[in-house]
């Protein structure tokens, strides 16, 4: 008899298995590193990161790319992007130091962190960085004191629905407040330079870009009527990558954004910026870890691995679902994947389809290039993953 439905466990695991095989088929140089003697290890494919960066450049030709360093600040990644001519978006003195240690000039750096420590502003300004985001009057006051005459761009709030990692609640202002902030900045001797928004990280909803660009256009016109000559529009990050589902394609987002700009901002801003993080590195990382234990608790099958939410997989707490793969055959079961620490919050995923592994087996976590090692701590004394950029 022919089955007319595919069992959801098979569907899920087949997706991960195919993804694993496809990922490695074009990355032979990583295969030598699939069984390291110590785990966890994050393998990063530098050639893949280069391709992603060039793909974004290709589809957003009018935009200057500022890589969001927070996504992955590994020096090899930063060096690669610096050599390719990328700009950088930094939030802290340490991120700036890392970028500048590679010889990157301050003109290639912006800071889109809306609430910045004074020490950071002071340090960045002293190094020659002079473009900062604002979304409050207090931030304008701080900048006018510590970074006089610098250029400021204001962050608008936009919906983050359909983004796996929403960012809209903490930052951003409405159009009228944004205008007031820019006018206030001008009064304080700063240069109103432009505006930005963030559609939410891992954004799979075109509508967020629609609202963002509509609001940007409204602010642009209102600013003009007040005599402000804005130059720059920054559309933030949000470009999604594949996790347990296929994400929107960069070329489709770029096509859509181009159409929106033609419609709502026909005389294009002098400068267009995009600051992707996840979209550059997210699907270019493979975390190699090992199974350290198994247990049956009630009806639940638990699998424990030697990494967790405190040392690399923090985003699992907030909605990112990684694909998992083990080199075993056999009947699929549904697993709850627990992290290495003693904390009961340290659960990496639930309802994961996998054939049963043994303790000591390698377990592979795909799409783990962004927001993993940068978040990692050494809670309970467990090490952060070693990073191998290859
Ligand atoms: C201000 C800013 N820009 C850019 C990014 C990068 O976003 P993504 O990784 O979604 O591309 C972030 C992410 O938190 C951000 O806060």
Question: What would you say this structure looks like, in words?
Answer:
- The chain has helices spanning 8-25, 28-31, 46-59, 75-83, 93-100, 118-127, 137-146, 175-187, 206-225, 250-264, 278-281; strands at 41-44, 63-68, 87-89, 109-110, 131-134, 151-156, 163-165, 191-197, 201-203, 232-234, 271-274, 285-297, 300-305, 324-326, 332-338, 347-355, 362-365, 386-389.
- The chain is of the alpha/beta class.
- The protein folds into two domains: 8-43 and 283-389, Lyase, Ornithine Decarboxylase, Chain A, domain 1, CATH 2.40.37; 47-280, TIM Barrel (Alpha-Beta Barrel).
- Helix 3 crosses helix 4 (75-83).
- The chain is elongated and about 70 Å long.
- The model has no long low-confidence stretch (mean pLDDT 96).
- Bound molecules: pyridoxal-5'-phosphate.
- Pyridoxal-5'-phosphate (PLP) is lined by residues 68, 70-71, 89, 112, 167, 198, 201, 236-239, 275-279.
Protein topology:
Blueprint lengths: L7 H18 L2 H4 L9 E4 L1 H14 L3 E6 L6 H9 L3 E3 L3 H8 L8 E2 L7 H10 L3 E4 L2 H10 L4 E6 L6 E3 L9 H13 L3 E7 L3 E3 L2 H20 L6 E3 L15 H15 L6 E4 L3 H4 L3 E13 L2 E6 L18 E3 L5 E7 L8 E9 L6 E4 L20 E4 L1
Parallel strand pairs: 1-18, 2-3, 2-11, 3-4, 5-6, 6-8, 8-10, 10-11, 13-15
Antiparallel strand pairs: 1-12, 7-9, 12-13, 12-17, 14-17, 15-16
Helix pairs in contact: 3-4, 8-9, 9-10
This protein binds pyridoxal-5'-phosphate.
The site of pyridoxal-5'-phosphate has 17 residues, from helix 11.
């Amino acid at each position: 008899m022919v089955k007319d439905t595919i069992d959801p466990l098979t569907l899920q695991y087949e997706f991960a298995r195919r993804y694993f095989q496809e990922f490695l088929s074009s990355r032979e140089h990583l295969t030598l590193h699939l069984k390291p003697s110590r785990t966890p290890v994050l393998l990063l494919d530098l050639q893949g990161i280069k391709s992603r960066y060039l793909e974004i450049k290709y589809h957003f030709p009018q935009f200057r790319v500022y890589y969001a360093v927070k996504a992955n600040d590994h020096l090899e990644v930063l060096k690669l992007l610096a050599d390719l001519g990328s700009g950088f978006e930094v939030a802290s003195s340490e991120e700036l130091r890392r970028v500048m240690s590679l010889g990157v000039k301050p003109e290639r750096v912006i800071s889109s962190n809306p609430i910045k420590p004074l020490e950071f502003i002071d340090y960045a300004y002293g190094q020659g960085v002079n473009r900062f985001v604002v979304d409050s009057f207090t931030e304008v006051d701080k900048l006018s004191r510590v970074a006089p005459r610098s250029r400021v761009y204001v962050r608008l709030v936009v919906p983050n629905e359909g983004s796996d990692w929403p960012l809209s609640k903490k930052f951003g202002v409405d159009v009228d407040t944004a205008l007031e902030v820019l006018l206030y900045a001008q009064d304080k001797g700063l240069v109103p330079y432009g505006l930005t928004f963030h559609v939410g990280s891992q954004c799979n909803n075109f509508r967020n870009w629609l609202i963002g660009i509509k609001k940007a256009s409204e602010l642009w016109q209102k600013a003009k009527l007040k005599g402000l000559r804005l130059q720059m529009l920054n559309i933030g990050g949000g470009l999604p990558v594949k996790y347990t589902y296929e994400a929107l394609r960069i070329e489709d987002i770029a096509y859509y954004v181009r159409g929106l700009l033609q419609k709502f901002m026909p005389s294009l801003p002098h400068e267009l910026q995009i600051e992707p993080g996840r979209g550059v590195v997210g699907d270019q990382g493979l975390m190699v870890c090992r199974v350290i234990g198994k247990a049956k608790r009630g009806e639940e099958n638990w699998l424990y691995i030697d990494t967790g939410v405190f040392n690399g997989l923090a985003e699992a707490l907030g909605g990112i679902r990684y694909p998992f793969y083990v080199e075993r055959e056999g009947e699929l079961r549904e697993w709850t994947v627990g992290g290495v620490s003693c904390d009961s919050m340290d659960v990496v995923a639930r309802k994961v389809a996998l054939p049963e592994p043994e303790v000591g087996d390698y377990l592979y976590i795909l799409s783990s290039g962004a927001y993993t090692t940068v978040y990692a701590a050494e809670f309970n004394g467990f090490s952060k993953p070693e990073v191998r950029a290859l």
